[in-house]
Amino acid sequence: MGPEGKKLLNIVILGLGFMFMFTAFQTCGNIEQTIIKSFNSSEFHGSGYTSMAIIYGVFSASNLMAPSVVTVIGPQLSMFVSGLIYSGYIAMFIHPLTWSFYTASVLVGVAAAVLWTAQGNVLAINSTDNTIGRNSGIFWSLLQFSLFFGNLYIYCAWHGHVHITDKDRRTVFISLTVISLVGCFLFFLIRKPDPEPLSGSEVTESLLQTESTEGSTSSSSQSGLCSQALDAFVKACKMFVTKEMLLLSISIGYTGLELTFY
Q1: What confidence tens digit (pLDDT) does each residue in 59-92 have?
Q2: Where does the sequence pass through the membrane (predicted)?
Q3: Which of 106, 112, 206, 236 has its CA 20 to 30 A from that of 50?
């Protein structure tokens, strides 16, 4: 398979991973308030609306630190760990407790920021100026299928049910947890794209850089990771105050407000 074919395959795997994960998570978000109302327990006093508010509030606040996390541990591992947290949130509904419900909501907010930052990184490194539009379309098409499959599953599983029993709840959320985990492990199938061919002068420069770094120690490597994380944070802050981002923030803010009522 050629370099372009490998990049396209990476985009398809990325889209499928998100499709599985969000088939589970968006379905969970759509039905959780209904589940909570049907859940008869004196130990649980959670609210699905409060949970969603916590998730997206923490999500917003965590976006500034997310680039640093992705820089340090890499986009692939970032998506996998974030996916595990999403799966944990869904699994919590198998036996819900108030404290675990809200704790998981906070963790998912942080995980969401890291997940979507890593997704953007993977999409960018597997695209060129000529393919970014196509690749974005493929990814978002696959992602939006999650709404279809998730709601279809709930319709088939609960069709004709007037009351959601504990058995119905456990069966659905065990299934959704497994579906989410499948998406997590799909991320390990993403392969690093082949580097672009270098010109003669670039090859020479690359060799010189390699020779100059051969003597570096593990301590300098650790300090290098810290400086990369700090650099990613500073760049994110600087990008936020650029003219383009400030103008975009108006439409982004409106979109977020509209999605609040989605």
Answers
A1: 988 988 888 899 889 999 999 999 999 999 999 9
A2: 7-26, 46-65, 77-95, 101-125, 137-160, 172-190
A3: 236
C-alpha Rg value of the chain to the nearest Å: 21
In what helix (H) or strand (E) does residue 236 lie, and over which residues does it extend? helix 218-240
Residues 22-72: tens digit of each pLDDT? 999 999 988 888 888 777 666 778 888 888 889 989 998 898 888 889 988
- CB–CB of 96/48 below 8 Å? no
111 vs 88: CA distance, rounded Å: 11
CB of 20 closer than 8 Å to CB of 142: no
Helix 66-73 with 75-91: angle, nearest 10 deg = 120
- Which of the following CATH numbers is that of domain 3-189: 1.20.1250.20, 2.40.10.340, 3.30.70.20, 1.10.357.10? 1.20.1250.20
